[in-house]
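Table S2 (text version). Query chain:
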Amino acid sequence: MQKSDIEIAQQTPMEPIGEIAERAGIDAGYLEHYGRYKAKVDLSIMGDPKYGGQGKLVLVTAITPTPAGEGKTTTTVGLADGLRRIGESVVVALREPSLGPVFGVKGGAAGGGYAQVVPMEDINLHFTGDMHAIGAANNLLAAMLDNHIFQGNELGIDPRRVTWHRCVDMNDRQLRRVANGLGGRTGGMPREDAYDITVASEIMAILCLSDGIADLKRRLANIIVGYTFGEEPVTAGQLSAEGAMAALLKDAIKPNLVQTLEHTPAFVHGGPFANIAHGCNSVTATKLALKLGDYVITEAGFGADLGAEKFLDIKCRMAGLAPSAVVIVATVRALKHHGGASGSAGSSDEVTGNNGLDVLERGLPNLLRHVENITQVYGLPAVVAINRFPGDTDAEVGYIESECKRLGVNVVLSEVWAKGGEGGEALAREVVRLCGEPSDFRFSYGSGLSISEKIEAIATKVYRADGVSLTPEAQKQIGQLEKLGFGGMPICIAKTQYSFSDDPTLLGAPDGWTLTVRSVKVSAGAGFIVALTGDIMTMPGLPKTPAAERIDVDDNGVISGLF
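Corresponding structure-token output:
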């Protein structure tokens, strides 16, 4: 009987975190232990001249995702273990899972099979408390904002133009729109409000983009919480909230050190969603990993049109990072799904023979478009990693390989789910080869463009839309933001993860469509402009049968059902 991910994780012995730190070259004095197998690393290590290395950064991304998933995190972990098996010094840098997806659609999110980060139960649940600290800081600001209005509203904040939401790290559609301040004169100012999932909070993005406490406080102070009756922005700094918020986040900003099943050092820190935020782990964790390993393997959320675009255009731009290579993960069954195979993506590999090749041929343009974006739009060396399943035929894999080679990109089979690092050795060797090649890394748009021009550049170059349609509300908002001096910021497009377009039903590589931007807002603390498209929302809901129904804990405290 095939073991579940959590059974594999629980049955694989872990090494004490001090030994993992020693392997990574981290002095014990920088460690803050959270039990035997987790630790935070004090930020003072960043200024220690002993840690002056500069490894090569490798980004793992994927094709447009399907409900079955493509194994991006699994590939990231397995690739790192594969690099270590062939003698390379390597560190992993991943995002922290959100409780929303853990209890919602997919269960655990720490890799899979024999390519996981552990302790997976801790990582998937409370971990070191980072998510809770971010939620507390977010809601402290909300409380201070409403208290300011209640206590006389010296700043003249228009309650109808409060933009700061409360948050909770759970999928709870009931909280998308709420009325609060009810209960009479002492209950506060009645107004409409909303909740976001914690990973969508601007504070999550700020934590992931800050390079230290001073930068954190500066960014927190710049958060715009609403507008006055005179339409002037009001910031957290004007409410004198940044100091207390930073106090709540002083430990959360420190990277979390854990390990893979094969004891490769791994930082798991920060976790914004890539469909509604910038979708990358923290800059601090990435930069620390680069000081410690010759190779750093990181990932960005969802498909390359979302996570990779934001990793490259936002994170790399702000942090001065430049990847040496990109891995694009795909599966035959997912490509068949994009080709119109009936049923779920998980069962589409049942379409075999000539019919299977026909469906695969129709779905392959999705992968090829992502490959072209990475190599031609961003100028980076790339390899396609195919997670092979038992139903995949040699003809199907060979067809993908031949088509990718037309674009000058190799295809490598990945067997990391079943074999761990051993199944990632071939991919590791190809990544080492790619990192030795010259790259011409560039952004998809320049900083000097207007907000509208930047949105259009992403839409036409990366999504391959015919153009952009801005609603009258979005046009007005863009004008206001540029008037306020925010026009130079990069763009974070909030878009469905299931399509290149803003319509989740348009699979494959759709052409002949227009991106509609319904509203635009500024995340002044994070330092980017958010453009909302389609029906994207910042508070997901639970599915009809949530993963939470399968999760349990026994009398000995052993958890089950986390994937």
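Notes on Table S2: Confidence is low (pLDDT under 50) at residues 344-349. The first helix runs from residue 5 to 11.
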